[in-house]
Amino acid sequence: MKKTKMIPSMQIAYVENECPNSQSILFLHALGEEKESYEEMLSFFTDCRCIAFDWPGHGESGRSERWTLDAFTEVLKDVMDYLNVDKAWIVASSFSAWVAQTFTAKYPERVAGLILLDGGYYDPSPYHLLQIPFHTPPVFPDLQSLRQNAVEYAARIERLGVHVSEQVKAFIIRTRMHLYRYLAEENAFIPKTDQNAMAALGEEINCGRFLFHHHHDIPTLLLLADLQETPAGAASLLQHMRLEAKKESRMDVKEIPNSYYLLMLTNPEETSALIRAYLEEHRRL
């Protein structure tokens, strides 16, 4: 991934490639993740202007006092304004899919199309089975413990039936470890993500009402993973919502076989290929 740059006025960290005259694509990471999660996928889009940034409270970006969808919508707009992006395709994972839809509802003229990666296709507020209690990520006493946890994370994905190459496995482990920073005063590795942000934004999603794809004609592709770890009793509910999503005539829905929830980590090549095909279909590249 290219060297991180900073938007000083916003304290937003970002990376981009050098294709100023091509179609712009913004890559928005999931809650608790960071821009580095798209590192592998960005390598498949060398002919586009690709931008990935850390949300406030994540990665290398600064903190914030406002943990709401509206606030994050304005962050997205300000990032686009600062980088002179008038209109872009938006690739958004999980939590960010709801941010992307909120942004599209407010600024439709700035969005060429939406690519939602396992998020944003259902209204979570009525589905109590999906409301997982907020869990504080663990703290690790040393680098060895952190690495072992990352290795176990990759192994758990493989046990679910997801086939990942050694290169992708190494990427997953590296990305998991990158979510932590060493804090000298605690002599431990702690999560980079602001835990207040995690809790507040998770609650924001659970309490909101979203189905904005019903109300615009902007091209929208929903990519679904077929293997997920879900709360007890929620699997059938997720399947029901997927069937409902596939009935939505304004949204194209594709499922990636042998894949896991964080598609940009476990299935970067397949996910990128489907996105490129969709963009080419709409003649945006």
Describe the overall structure:
It is a single chain. With about 280 residues, the protein is α/β, with parallel strands linked by helices. Helix content is about 35%, strand content about 20%. It is built from nine helices and ten strands. It has helices at about 40, 70-80, 95-105, 145-160, 165-180, 195-205, 235-245, 265, 270-280; strands at about 5, 10-15, 25-30, 50-55, 90-95, 110-115, 180-185, 190, 220-225, 250-260. The chain has an eight-stranded mixed sheet, sandwiched between helices. The chain has a two-stranded antiparallel sheet with strand order 7-8. Strand 3, helix 1 (about 40) and strand 4 (about 50-55) form a beta-alpha-beta unit. The relative contact order is 0.16. The mean pLDDT is about 85.
Q: Major beta sheet, specifics?
A: 8 strands, mixed
List how many beta strands DSSP finds: 10
| Helix fraction by DSSP (H/I, runs of at least 4) | 25-40%
**Structural class estimated from helices and strands:** alpha/beta
The number of helical runs is: 9
Strand and helix order: EEEHEHEHEHHEEHEHEHH
- Side by side, the strands of the main sheet go 1-2-4-3-5-6-9-10
How does the overall form come out from the CA principal axes? globular
In percent, how much strand structure appears in the residues? 15-25%
- Stretches where pLDDT is under 50 for at least 5 consecutive residues are none
Give descriptors for this structure.
285 residues; 8-stranded mixed β-sheet; alpha/beta; two-stranded antiparallel sheet; single chain; globular; 36% helix
